[in-house]
Specification:
about 950 residues; mainly beta; Immunoglobulin-like; Ferric Hydroxamate Uptake Protein, Chain A, domain 1; Maltoporin, Chain A; 26-stranded antiparallel beta sheet; 50 strands; about 45% strand
């Protein structure tokens, strides 16, 4: 982590630099075309100039023999292109809008000079890109500034694009699932051309202040060979730069109890307050050459969670509404310098400090963990345009982040490798009942760093735009856990009963303990490495046909624990041969075709195929390092309250010298996905566009856990009796995602914009990253993907009315999620309480649940039947609105008065984000109910000054 003088040096370096026109190739756009005379002849030697209308930065070149020119690596923004040749009138095209990755075709016709004149026209930015086969959409600055945005988290606007969800993500970080990313770590995140994902398990590493975001692009499928580490899609974000004018903002967004409605499960409206404040400033250090831009944003939240078990006769002491405070700081600074017409430098620093309390609390959970997640990164880059045809882009990143999760309400502990009593004793015993979870024994630390070096070289020759490059990442990582220790552990009970943790008598009177589990502390250090080489050719086969050809090679060292020292264990690990490990043949071909159907840049038909490789899955493979270092205790039908019955816990760890161990399959691979796409886009009148796409994504190789040393059901003998359970981490996961995307958009013009998208999804998998439900029937894991919502409709738009009043609105509808009916007890004897109700299949709830089988199981356990209408729906229907009034003081100074309402009609949307609160335990009296909900109507008032 950057601290003290090191941080100061980084900040001074950043402030000494400025905003330039060039960024990483993947996040940049391009203006290209041909200059001709009035008879159609090509004109070489034309002096071409492109100028960023905000920063004033210019670049010049001369057209080559065939009259062609290309300005690559243009940052998103508004540009003017000027063409000059002796004997011809000067032509100037202004207001050309460049977005991330967009290739703008600009053919110029010069007229013979009659007078000393300059012809100036306004450029039109097409809504259809006729050169790319990828399926993507860009969220522009106009949308960021005019649409309602909850919590100022810019990634929430990614949900405007079809094929995106937040289901199957985790609550730790601001993130979205893109394309076929039905797992929380299937999306790639790139900021200013560099990786913005955790090495630990692939989620987005850092959030950005809203004011720091220029725009971002969501590529659902078919992304090019320069990107990787995503089995679904990629989100590219470009940070904002300063211009030739000093500009800044200051803002405060405010919510409190009086502005909110009462929640679904709240008997009274709880106290609530949130302040979000900060600002930005940017401008020139040297006009047209050196600029800077910095932002800061802080959020203080005092909110509450509600515990509702549906069993007040047992848990009334724990039900109710309780405080849930949190804080977050986001800060960034960016600077760039234009060294010459052909070279530029930039540097950018991002920081984030986040503290959340009682994570996981609410619904049936009456306790949870606290979290602190500090994150920082520095990115530096050099761009060199070599003549009219070549460009080199060099990038470096250092990032450091850490996750600290610890028992709620206890002190933070950051030192790894130490387990003194004051740390271990923070944990308390956890109690799991069918309708309640209570206890604090989560204690986990995971600091990591990323050293990333990337170089890309691009060339334009004839009809070919060739790009090739390489990348190297070194990612040191430490994983450490001290929670759920033998002194605390977790009890699971088969029935609900009276429980008051503050009443020792009620705690001592508990009966019906089904299982007890605990683990010893551990520390694991496991660095990984990532090597990349790629080549990409955008080949204009004909004037109206572009073929995208690419090949990417990836070598992810450490994903299969290739560095495991087998001699460090007291006994040999079975089924382990490190010499066989290592996924070394990861070649990913990418191909696509874009056909400008009528050669008028208005209708394009596209298709593509590619193989894409996913993120590191360290959390799945790390347990292998902890064999004989971290021990698990699992006791079925344990005595209560002492699961060890007066014996030392170590006797249960080493009982009969048969420990539980974890091994990684020697065939472990980097997750891979084969994507096939087909679609059509058509430009419509009034600056509108219609896009229809089909996506098929088959992802394989993610991990599954299987006990390969299970007891024979007849002889009760294990294949290797010297071990108890042998959990093998296997590349068995399989996901098939089919989707239809429809998008109708109108770019901002005539004071309005809108975007309407529809997604149909059909996705099935075998529960990637999960444990097999039954070693005797592996097919039980097959079912709908946990994040699959069949239908999704998202409509958004904004209108600028007279008197500087802007109205923005967003409507979201998403059909319900699938879920599983679980038995509530260990039916197959594997010591895991995850078995399905006999006669049901995984995730059949809200799909094709066999309710008769559920009721038969309940009746066999002396419980009443559940009616179909007694099962809650998790569908989402939300309308958000934003109204702003600008008070202007001159050309640039203004004060915006804003009001936003989220869930305007206070619609009841059961099941809180990230999937919590569904009661799937068939032994619960609240089976099929949802005990959590998304927020009720919340109104936010804000004031924002800009100059």
């Amino acid at each position: 982590m950057i601290r003290g003088s090191a941080r100061l040096c980084c900040l001074l370096l950043l402030y000494s630099m400025s905003a330039a026109t060039m960024r990483a190739q993947g996040s940049a756009g391009q203006i290209e075309g041909t200059v001709r005379d009035e008879q159609g002849g090509v004109l070489p030697g034309v002096a071409m100039t492109v100028r960023n209308q905000e920063s004033g930065v210019t670049r010049t070149l001369t057209t080559v023999n065939d009259g062609r020119f290309a300005f690559p690596a243009l940052a998103p923004g508004r540009y003017t292109v000027r063409a000059e040749l002796t004997g011809f009138s000067v032509q100037e095209v202004s207001d050309i809008i460049i977005t991330i990755g967009f290739s703008h075709r600009l053919d110029v016709t010069l007229k013979v000079q009659a007078l000393a004149e300059t012809l100036t026209v306004r450029g039109e930015s097409p809504v259809v890109d006729t050169t790319k086969a990828e399926i993507s959409g860009t969220v522009t600055q106009q949308q960021i500034e005019s649409l309602p945005m909850n919590s100022r988290q810019y990634l929430s606007l990614a949900l405007l694009v079809p094929g995106t969800t937040v289901d199957a993500t985790r609550s730790f970080f601001a993130t979205v699932n893109v394309g076929g990313s039905m797992t929380f770590n299937g999306t790639g995140n790139v900021v200013d051309g560099m990786i913005n994902n955790w090495a630990e398990d692939g989620e987005p590493r850092q959030d950005l202040p809203e004011d720091a975001v220029e725009e971002f692009k969501v590529t659902n499928a078919g992304y090019k060979a320069e990107f990787g580490l995503a089995t679904g899609g990629v989100v590219e974000t470009v940070t904002k730069s300063g211009g030739n004018a000093f500009r800044g903002t200051a803002f405060e967004y405010f919510r409190n109890k009086a502005l909110n409605s009462r929640g679904v499960f709240e008997t009274v409206k709880p106290d609530y307050r949130r302040d979000q404040f900060g600002g930005s400033v940017g401008g020139p250090i040297v006009r047209d050459k050196v600029h800077f831009f910095g932002t800061f944003e802080r959020t203080d939240t005092e909110e509450f969670y509600t515990v509702r078990t549906g069993q007040p006769q047992f848990y009334s002491k724990l039900e109710g509404t309780f405080p849930l405070p949190s804080t977050r700081n986001l800060y960034s600074v960016r600077g760039d310098v234009r060294l010459s017409n052909s070279q530029s430098l930039f540097a950018r620093f991002l920081g984030e400090d986040d503290k959340k309390t009682c994570q996981g609390c609410g619904g049936v959970a009456a306790s949870g963990r606290d979290e602190e997640v500090p994150r920082e990164s520095v990115v530096m880059g050099h761009t060199w345009v070599r003549g009219a045809r070549q460009l080199n882009d060099l990038r470096f990143q250092y990032a450091h982040a850490a996750f600290y999760g610890y028992p709620g309400g206890t002190p933070l502990w950051t030192e790894t490798g130490a387990f003194p009593a004051e740390r271990v004793n923070r944990s308390t015993r956890t109690y799991n009942f069918p309708s309640l979870v209570y206890g604090n024994n989560y204690d986990y630390i995971s600091p990591e760093s990323r050293w990333e070096l990337r170089d890309t070289y691009a060339m334009n020759y004839g009809n070919h735009g060739v790009k090739f490059g390489g990348e190297y990442n070194y990612m040191p990582y430490v994983s450490e856990g001290a929670g759920n220790s033998p002194s605390s552990g977790t009890y699971s009970f088969s029935r609900d009963q009276f429980f008051d943790p503050n009443d020792p008598a009620s705690v001592a009177a508990l009966t019906g303990a089904a299982t007890f589990s605990a683990q010893t502390p551990y520390t694991t250090s496991h660095p990984t490495k990532y090597y990349v080489g790629f080549v990409q050719d955008d080949w204009r086969l004909r004037p109206n046909i572009t073929v995208n050809l690419g090949l990417r090679y990836e070598r992810l060292y450490g994903n299969a624990n290739e560095d495991l020292d087998v001699n460090s264990f007291p006994v040999p690990l079975p089924y382990v041969d490190v010499s066989q490990r290592g996924d070394k043949d990861n070649f990913g071909p990418r191909t696509g075709i874009a056909w400008d159907l009528f050669s008028n840049a208005r209708t394009v038909v596209r298709a593509g195929y590619g193989r894409f490789y996913g993120h590191i899955r360290l959390l799945g493979t790390l347990p292998e390092f902890n064999n004989f270092r971290q021990f698990t205790i699992s006791i079925t039908n344990p005595p209560y309250p002492d699961p060890y019955n007066g014996q030392p816990p170590t006797l249960f760890i080493l009982t009969s010298q048969a420990p539980n161990i974890s091994v990684v399959s020697n065939e472990m691979i980097q997750p891979a996905a084969d994507q096939s796409t087909a679609g059509v886009s058509s430009a419509l009148p009034f600056n509108m566009g219609l896009h229809v796409d089909f996506v098929y994504n088959h992802a394989k190789g993610d991990y599954k856990t299987l006990n390969i040393n299970f007891r024979d059901p007849v002889t009760l003998q294990r294949p290797l009796p010297q071990f108890n359970r042998i959990d093998q981490i296997r590349p068995d996961a399989d996901l098939k995602y089919k989707a239809l995307y429809v998008k109708l958009e109108k770019r901002y013009s005539h004071n309005s914009q809108f975007l309407v998208s529809y997604t149909f999804t059909d996705s099935d998998d075998n529960n990637p990253m999960g444990r097999y439900l039954d070693v005797f029937n592996l097919n039980l894991d097959d079912g709908p993907s946990s994040g699959e919502r069949r239908h999704a409709i998202v409509a958004s738009g904004s209108v600028l009315f007279p008197w500087d009043i802007t109205l923005g609105a967003l409507y979201s509808y998403r059909s319900q999620l699938p879920w599983s009916a679980t038995a509530g007890r260990d039916l197959n004897g594997d010591t895991f309480n995850t078995d399905l109700v006999p006669g049901t299949t995984r995730n059949s709830g809200s799909r094709n649940l066999n309710l008769a089988a559920v009721n038969a199981y309940r009746q066999a356990n002396a419980l009443g039947a559940i009616a179909e209408n007694g099962i809650d729906s998790s569908r989402i229907s939300v309308v958000d609105v934003r109204v702003s009034k600008a008070l202007r003081f001159g050309d640039r100074r203004k004060i915006d008065l804003l009001a936003q309402a989220f869930n305007l009609f206070n619609t009841q949307n059961l099941q809180a984000q990230f999937g919590g609160g569904r009661v799937g335990n068939a032994l619960s009296n609240t089976f099929g109910k949802i005990t959590s909900a998304r927020p009720p109507r919340q109104v936010e008032l804000a004031v924002r000054a800009a100059w």
